[in-house]
Specification:
By secondary structure, the chain is mostly helical. It has one domain. 56% of the residues lie in helices and 0% in strands. It has two helices and no strands.
Length: 55
């Protein structure tokens, strides 16, 4: 799916479902590389720079 071009939403959905089927046959756990506090701190920084973000 990386850098794929999809003709329409239906083709994209088909490719996503195909990828999910393959992934679920041999899943690997996601390993977080940052703590929740680090992620939230970074997100706060982004939101502070975006106009009309409610901050």
């Amino acid at each position: 799916m990386r850098r794929g071009a999809h003709e329409n939403v239906q083709v994209l959905e088909k490719d996503i479902r195909k990828w999910l089927k393959i992934w679920n046959e041999g899943p690997k756990p996601f390993v977080w590389t940052e703590t929740a506090d680090e992620i939230l701190e970074r997100l706060t920084g982004y939101l502070n720079r975006i106009p009309d973000s409610g901050r």
